[in-house]
Structures are given as C-alpha cells and as structure tokens.
Amino acid sequence: MSEFTELFSEKIARELNLQPWQVFNTLKLMEGGATIPFIARYRKEMTGTLDEVMLAAIRDRNEQLTEIEKRRAFILESVTEQGKMTPELEKQIKEAVTLTELEDIYLPYKVKRKTRATIAREKGLEPLARLLMLQQPIIPEKRAEAFVSEEKAVHSVEEALAGARDIIAEWVNESRISRERIRGLFSREALISSKPVKGKELEGIHYQNYYETNENILKAPSHRILAMFRGEEEGFLRLSVEPDEDKALEILDRVFLKADNEAAVQVQTAIRDSYKRLMQPSMETEMRQLAKQKADDEAIKVFAGNLRQLLLAAPLGQKNVLAIDPGFRTGCKVVCLDRQGRLLHNETIYPHPPQNEVGPAVSKIRNLVQAYGIEAVAIGNGTAGRETENFIRKIPFDRKLICIMVNESGASVYSASPVAREEFPDYDVTVRGAVSIGRRLMDPLAELVKIDPKSIGVGQYQHDVNQHALQRSLEDTVVSCVNLVGVELNTASKQVLSYVSGVGPSLAQNIVDFRNQNGSFRSRAQLLKVKRFGDKAFEQAAGFLRIREAENPLDRSAVHPESYPIVEKMAAKLNCSITDLMEKDELRKQINPADFVTKTAGLPTITDILKELAKPGLDPREQFDLFEFDKNINSIEDLRPGMILNGIVTNITAFGAFVDIGVHQDGLVHLSQMANRYIKDPNEVVKLTQKVRVKVMDVDVQRKRIGLSIKEAVNQ
User: Fold this and answer.
1) In order along the chain (716 residues), what is the average pLDDT of each group of 10 residues?
2) Do both 527 and 592 map to the same domain?
3) CATH code for the domain of 688
4) DSSP states of 644-705 as a string?
5) Final residue of a domain: which of 94, 109, 124?
6) Which among 159, 413, 469, 518 is least buried, having the fewest CB atoms inside 10 angstroms?
C-alpha cells in the first residue's frame, strides 16, 4: 500500500463527495491489481457500489496527487541542498495544495539559466536593488555612482540602475503574492485574440471565422480554442492572451509601490518591465495550458462518448454475410463470410462505370447468395456506396435478404494493419477491407477493437488534444465496453481477449495458442491451464469470459466462479438443478436474497446473481434495427431545402451532430436545430448510430455543406 493512500483517501473523498472508506478500499483494490470493470462488477460491497466513472475519477485523482507529492519531495530536497531551507519555507512547501502553488514557492530557488538579473547580481548590483526597493527619499543616480566599476563592467550610472531594475523585475515576477493576484486577473478576464498572419489570409481561408476573434479564453467553447491553436500551429493565425494591461499594472503597483519619490519611480519602471517581459508571457503560457487542458478534456469526453456508443451499436448477430467494399473504376470487392465471420470466398464485380458489366455482376451475386446461404448484405458507405446499394436492391433473389449500409470509417486503416496482415496474409487490402465491413455488421464491437480508435472517425480534433490523455480515455472506454458485453472464450480474437479484465495482449495470445492446440474450452476452470494464467488473472477475467457450450451452465453467464457455491446453495435449498434455477422464474421468486448473504457477498452481489440467472449472458446492446436511405436521393445535387429524409448519426461534437443521409457527405444538425427547447449537449437528443428523421435546411454544393434540422422534421 502507498504511504499516501490513507491521506489521499480523505482528500479525494471530500472532493468527490464520497466516504473515505469507499476511496480507501478502491485504491487498495487497484494497488492489488484489480481492474475498474472487475471492481465495479464484482466488488460492490467494498466500494459502496461505485460505478466505473467514479472509480476512474478516483484512480486519476490519486495519480495527480501522487505526482504532486513526488514534486514536493524533489523541491524539499533541492532547497535543502542549496542550504536555503527555513522552518517557514518548509511549512509553506509542505502545506501547498497544488502544483502551481509548489512551483510559485520554488521559483526563486530554481537553478536559472543566465538572465539579466543574474548578470546584474554578478556585477554586484543587488545591494542597489535592495536600496531602491526601500523607496526612501534618496536620489537614485547619486547612490548608483558607488556601483560604477570598470572591473565589474558597470560603465555608467544608468547601467547600474538598469541592472538594479532587472533584479527588482525578477523579484516582482517571483513574488508569490504578485503571481497569485495576476493569475487571478488572467483567470477572470484574460482574452484570447486571434488575427490572420499577414499575407496568408487566402491560404488560410478555412480559418476565416477566427480572423477577428476576441473572447474570454476560459469561457470559449472547446472546439474554438482547439481550432485557433491549430490555426496558429499551421502558421495562419496569430494569437495573444492577456487581460487589460492597465489593470495588471495597477495590481502590481498596489503590491510593490510604497512611496511617491524618485526611488519609487525606478521600482515602477521595473514593475512595468517585469510584467511585459516576464510575468505576462509566463501567465499567458499558463492560461494557454489551462484552456488547452479544458478544451482537451471536453474533446476527449466527446470522443470517448461517441466511441462508447459506436462500440455498443446493435449487432446483427451470427448470419451468413455477403460484404461489399464498393468502387467505380476498380470495381466492387465482394466477400462471403460464414456465421463466425470466417472468409469463404472473394471476387470482384464491375457493375458501375466505366466497365458497366451489370449482367455478369448480377449473375455472380445471385450465385454467391445461393451457394453460401447468404442472409444479409453489408455495403460500405464510401465511394459508390449508394450506387452499389441501389444495384443490389434491384436484383431479384430467391429469398428475403437484409441489405445494410455500413460505416466503413477506419476499414482501410485496419486492412493495412499488422492485425489484418496476420489474419489474412494471403489476401490484399481490398479483400481485408471488405471482410471488415461484413464483420462490423455482424458484431461492431468485435471488429472495431482491432482498429486504433482515433481512426474510426468519431472524434473532434483528436490529433490536437493531449495524446496520452486521449489514449487513456479511449482505452478505458474500449475495456469498459468489452467487459460490459462479455467475450465468448472459444471464438473471440486475441484483440478482443486482450481487453478483457486482467488479460492483456500476452495472455490473450496464450489463450488463443491453448485453444488452437487443445480445442475449445469446456469450462472456465481450464483457463488455469493456460500458460502464465495464474489465480490473479483468473479472478480478474473469469466473470467476463463466456463459454456458450460449457458443461456448467454458470460458465455461460456473468456469475463469477467465486460465487458458484452461492448458486449451488440456492439450488440445493429449492431441491432443483442450477439449470432449473436459470430456466424457471417461479423457482427464483422463492429465493430471499438475504438468506444467502456472506461475509464477502452482500445484497448487491446476491441481487446481481439473481438478475444474471434470469438472463444468463444476455447481450446488453440494443436489438438490430433495419434502416434505408431515400431511394431517390443519391448525391448532394439531389438535395433541396425542405426535404424530409432518413439519416443516421455518424458523429457528435460539442456544437451539434453529423448525420449521413446517403449522399457521400454528412450534414450538420447544429445544436440550435436539435430540439424545440434549449439544450447544452447533443447527447440529450441523439446517440451515435441512431436513426433519425431530418429536414434539409440549406445546401452549399460548392463547399459541400449541408444544414439539417431534427426539430423541424419533428414539427412537420
């Protein structure tokens, strides 16, 4: 256990409005190797039923506090080694709450590169600076004469006074009081101003909305902050961040000016130099970092929310699927997959210009549908997607087929990845891409975990935000989704298995190797025979792994093996089998949960067990819903204001949602067009992959922009 766990537990509990024991137990479990999904699902009694969001908040805050303690220890050691530690200073360092406070305290003791102030000190001008700071009724020029020295390279009175002012400027900048007050002013009133770089107005025209921007930096929407920072990075915008300069100088004058005389004039001159040369740039950097972090947090939250919705999209399930990666000149790549997603056949058809081989393409598709017992057709929504959909829908089949457009974002990334090459070493990228499209229809989660989440196309400025924080959040999201749904042990890919609680890439490979060498798993207990799969890994993973054809019916459920004895006692008390208990509602109704509470399994666990027995291994995702675009609308040129169309939500941002209406260009439903009431978050109205009715409000063919409205469609 960390030496700070108890201390942090109290602090985190206050911040998150929790009980200290909840936080303490959570940190204790995490330090013991328990994952967030495992703690949330199987250790409810220890945490007071905290959910994954709260558990992640505890973990993240604990890491932040740990970093502060590491920095505190370094600062204490550094100042002590310099021989400058005093009881008062030690008390200040130990009582500092934030990293910013610590850095402000440490600033005067930091080992500095050569500055104007250090040069002035080397010239012996610090006594003059101290004299001026007293602001006594002296004549500065007279006192400065004593510091003119050819030996120390101080050649004039003015040079001596300038050096003294440099030292004073550094004192002003390093003063905790001045930094706290100026920081407060920046936090309240700093404006971010954006202007175009001269001569690049036309080249950076896509940033024209930011050519004359002036707004409070900490109140500006996250997408605007990230857009401005990107424009600056690309060399099209020039940004500045500061409050009213006169207000800042007034604050500093009140702190440091004590008189109205010639010495005070020297101090005031140093104050102005300190603010412009040292403090304003420093505070601007802080505000930029603060605004960037705030914008990053918002963008990452949006991205993670979108990813979660996409991963938990309704699966079609196990069907024989014909999948098509559409194209014009290069043709449409066609693959046939069995119900487990295995590739059975592939070929290319050319039903579109320039070849226009419609007859042969129809014949091939009909033969494939017949030969492989095809039940559904998946068509990528990229180039030639709508044309291919129309082509397929016109073919007369001898059976009823489901025909679905599938979002293919990231399929090309997957097809060229090491994962795809390992799965299909003998096939090219077009075949792999088509397979990915088909599998996405069958089980979005199982297929999408093979792709870097940043390539799936549901983020907002994902390349501009803190990449470590983004990766952490997205990984948390994938892990949460995989463990929520559960994983079929005998069919899951190693990519899916690697996200199971307690498993990881190495053990996932070992599971697959064991499966290949020994055949299907017959029980969860067999996991302990897998190389390096010990008791701890089993504890963390077993409850999330399912075996559909297991001998023990509980192995098909989310009931953890550690709770099997509880279920066995339930069955024994009712004099029935476990299978009877799972299949017969009237038997379960006879159970009083309180009768089975133990020291380690309280009512929350018993309640979860009974819910799971009622619906063992139930997929929490929604049922698959058929969807079709308007058959008469195929391109942006076909759109007219006023049209009411079917659409599917493809991306959600802070300012609205993008909707695919089948014209190869998503339209934007702005926040103001979501509902007949004020909303702050698009997720109040729509979810990713949701089917919606939209009204076309405006169309700009040249700029490929489509304005849509959900509220207007509802009103008609």
Assistant:
1) 79 96 96 96 96 96 95 95 94 94 94 90 96 96 93 94 97 96 97 95 90 94 92 96 97 96 96 97 96 93 90 93 96 95 96 95 96 96 91 92 89 90 93 95 94 79 86 94 96 95 97 96 97 97 95 95 96 94 93 92 94 90 84 88 91 89 90 88 87 92 91 82
2) yes
3) 2.40.50.140
4) EEEEEEEEEETTEEEEE-SSSS-EEEEGGGS-SS--S-GGGT--TT-EEEEEEEEEETTTTE
5) 109
6) 518
